[in-house]
Write a structure and sequence with these properties.
The complex is a heterodimer of chains A (321) and B (176). The radius of gyration of chain A is 19 Å and the shape is globular. Chain A has eleven helices and nine strands. Chain A folds into two domains: 144 residues, Aspartate/ornithine carbamoyltransferase (Rossmann fold, 3-Layer(aba) Sandwich), CATH 3.40.50; 156 residues, Rossmann fold, CATH 3.40.50. Helix content of chain A is 37%, strand content 14%. In chain A, helix 1 packs across helix 11, helix 2 packs across helix 11 and helix 5 packs across helix 11. In chain A, the strands form two sheets. In chain A, strands 7-6-5-8-9 form a five-stranded parallel beta sheet. A four-stranded parallel beta sheet of chain A has the order 2-1-3-4, with helices on both faces. In chain A, helix 6 links the parallel strand 5 and strand 6. With 321 residues, chain A is an alpha/beta fold. Chain B is an alpha/beta fold and 176 residues long. Chain B is 30% helix and 26% strand. In chain B, the strands form two sheets. In chain B, strands 3-2-4-5-6 form a five-stranded parallel beta sheet, sandwiched between helices. A three-stranded antiparallel beta sheet of chain B has the order 1-8-7. Chain B is globular. The mean pLDDT of chain B is 95. The chains are: A alpha/beta (321), B alpha/beta (176).
C-alpha cells in the first residue's frame, strides 16, 4: 500500500488485510513489552493543520509502538501561520527525510494533492480532510464492530448482513462518509438518521437508506448505533432550532439505549458532547465501545503504518498492497 | 534443472519421532516444556512433535505459535508480509524450556527474530531450536539443538518442505 487517502476506493480485500493485521497488532499490545522493532529507522511526520489531540496522539502512539521516529508538525505557531504553502511545507518534510506523512487538513482533498503532486516521495495517510474522509476512523470503527461481534474469530471476516445506524450531522461529517463507504464495502447495511437540514444533497448517490426519525431506525434493532459529534463550531447556520430540541429528537438517551436488542453496541468517535447527541447513561453503558474504539484506533493505525512502511516500496515493484 | 525428493513421508515421520525422544532426553522428561512453532509449517511440526511427546511421556505438552514477522530485519527487501497470529499457551513461557520449531534452517535470520519475539513475551529458562531440515548457509551465529536432517545445498537451490496439513502432500524436495 502506497498511501491511504480514502475508504471510497479501498477494495474489500485491502480493507480486510488492514483489519486482519490490526488483529495481530492488537495481540502484541497485550504483551509484557508492547514496543516492536518493526519500523526502526523510519520517520513519521504528523502534519496537522487542524487541532486534533486524539487522532494525533493515536498516530503518535501507533508509530512509537512500531519504533518509528515521530515528528509532530502543528500548523499553529509554525511557518504555515507565516504563510508557507502546502508545497513548501511538503518539500521541507521531504528534505528532513519523512517516510510517511500523516496529514489532517481543513481542505477536502489536501492529502490527495500531497500524495499525487510529486512534491514528496513519502507515503501519505489521510487523518481527516475537510468534509471528505477520515479513513482510519472508519477502519477502527469496522474493527470494533467486528471484534465485538466475532471476538477471537474475527480474522478474515467481513460485516455481511450487519445493520448499522449512523446518527447526527452527516452533512459535515467525514467520519460518516468514510464509514458509509467502508461498511458497505464490507457488506453491512447502513442507515443514516439526521435532521433533514443535516443530510447532504447528493446522499441519493450513496449506498445507504436515510431516515429522519431516530426511534423508527432504532425499532429495527440495529447491530450498532454510531453517534456523530454535533460540531458546535459549525452550527452557526441554524440547522436545528435548539440544542434541547436536537437532543430530544436525535440524541441517544437512556430510554433509547434500553430499547436496543442484546448485543447491539453504541459507538461514538469522540470527543462526546454529553447531554447533546449522547447521554451519560448511553456513553457509560456496557453497550458503549467508546474506549475500545480508542484502543483499537492504535492497533488499526499500527497496521496502516506497517503496510505503508514495512515492505519493499510498491513503486519500486509496480504493485499495490 | 531437476528437483529431487530428499525426504519422503516415512523419513519425515521417523525424524520427528527421533527429535521427540531427543527433546525428552535433553529436558529429562516433559516437565516445563513449551513448543513454539514458527508459522506456517513450523506450527504444524510443533503440534506433531507435541503429540509424539505426549504419546511417549504420557503427559500433556504446551504448544503454540510464535510469529516473527514484526521482528524481522529484512522486511524492506520483500513485498509487505502479512503477520500470522501468535498463540502463547496458558501458563506462558516464563521459567519454561521453550523449544522453537521450524521447517527449514537457512540464514538463521528468522530464528534471530524469534529470539527477539520471545523476549517481548517473557523470560524462558532455556530456549532450544528444533529443525526438520538444516540446509546450511548460516549468516548468524545460530545452531540448532535438534535436527531432522542435514541437507547440504547450494545457496541458489530451493529447499521445499511440504506437509500433509498445509499442502496435502508430504515430502522435502531440493531443486533450482
Amino acid at each position: 500500500m502506497r498511501h491511504l487517502l480514502d475508504t471510497r476506493t479501498l477494495a474489500k480485500a485491502d480493507a480486510l488485510r488492514i483489519l486482519d493485521i490490526a488483529e495481530d497488532m492488537s495481540d502484541t499490545q497485550s504483551r509484557e513489552v508492547k514496543k516492536l522493532p518493526t519500523l526502526r529507522g523510519k520517520t513519521v511526520v504528523n502534519l496537522f493543520f487542524e487541532d486534533s489531540t486524539r487522532t494525533r496522539i493515536s498516530f503518535e502512539a501507533a508509530a512509537k509502538r512500531l519504533s518509528a521516529d515521530v515528528i509532530n508538525f502543528a500548523a499553529k505557531g509554525s511557518s504555515v501561520s507565516k504563510g508557507e504553502s502546502l508545497k513548501d511545507t511538503a518539500q521541507t518534510l521531504e528534505a528532513i527525510g519523512a517516510d510517511a506523512v500523516v496529514i489532517r487538513h481543513p481542505g477536502s482533498g489536501a492529502p490527495q494533492t500531497l500524495a499525487t503532486s510529486g512534491w514528496i516521495s513519502a507515503g501519505v495517510v489521510n487523518a481527516g480532510d475537510g468534509t471528505h474522509e477520515h479513513p482510519t476512523q472508519a477502519l477502527l470503527d469496522a474493527f470494533t464492530i467486528r471484534k465485538r461481534r466475532f471476538g477471537a474469530e474475527s480474522r478474515g471476516r467481513d460485516l455481511a448482513g450487519l445493520r448499522i445506524v449512523i446518527v447526527g450531522d452527516v452533512l459535515h461529517s467525514r467520519v460518516a462518509r468514510s464509514n458509509v463507504w467502508l461498511l458497505t464495502t464490507l457488506g453491512a447495511e447502513v442507515t443514516l438518521v439526521a435532521p433533514p437540514t443535516l443530510v447532504p444533497q447528493n446522499v441519493s448517490l450513496w449506498p445507504v437508506r436515510v431516515v429522519y426519525d431516530l426511534d423508527e431506525a432504532l425499532a429495527e434493532g440495529p447491530d450498532a448505533v454510531m453517534m456523530l459529534r454535533i460540531q458546535l463550531e459549525r452550527m452557526n447556520a441554524a440547522y436545528f432550532p435548539t440544542e434541547r430540541e436536537y437532543s430530544r429528537r436525535w440524541g441517544l438517551d437512556a430510554r433509547r439505549v434500553a430499547g436496543l436488542p442484546d448485543g447491539s453496541i453504541v459507538m461514538h468517535p469522540g470527543p462526546m458532547n454529553r447531554g447533546l447527541e449522547i447521554s451519560s447513561e448511553a456513553a457509560d453503558s456496557h453497550r458503549s465501545t467508546v474506549l475500545e474504539q480508542v484502543t483499537n484506533g492504535v492497533s488499526v493505525r499500527m497496521a496502516v503504518l506497517y503496510l505503508l512502511l514495512a515492505g519493499e516500496r510498491d513503486d519500486e515493484r509496480g504493485g499495490d498492497l | 534443472m531437476s528437483t529431487r525428493t530428499v525426504l519422503h513421508e516415512a523419513d519425515v515421520s521417523r525424524a520427528l519421532t527421533r527429535i521427540a525422544h531427543e527433546i525428552l532426553e535433553s529436558n529429562r522428561g516433559a516437565e516445563n516444556l513449551v513448543l513454539l512453532g514458527i508459522p506456517t509449517r513450523g506450527v504444524t511440526l510443533a503440534h506433531r512433535l507435541a503429540r509424539l511427546i505426549e504419546e511417549i511421556a504420557q503427559t500433556s505438552v504446551a504448544v503454540g505459535a510464535l510469529d516473527v514477522t514484526l521482528f524481522r530485519d529484512d522486511l524492506a527487501k520483500h513485498p509487505t508480509r502479512s503477520p500470522h497470529p501468535t498463540e502463547i499457551p496458558d501458563g506462558g513461557i516464563d521459567g519454561k524450556t521453550v523449544v522453537l520449531v521450524d521447517d527449514v534452517l537457512f540464514s538463521g535470520r528468522s530464528i534471530r527474530a524469534a529470539l527477539d519475539a520471545i523476549q517481548s513475551i517473557g523470560r524462558p529458562a532455556v530456549v532450544r531450536l528444533a529443525i526438520l531440515v538444516d540446509r546450511g548457509h548460516r549468516e548468524l551465529p545460530i545452531r540448532p539443538d535438534f535436527i531432522g536432517k542435514n541437507i547440504p545445498s547450494a545457496r541458489t537451490e530451493r529447499v521445499n518442505v511440504r506437509l500433509l496439513e498445509n499442502d496435502g502432500a508430504e515430502e522435502v524436495t531440493i531443486g533450482e
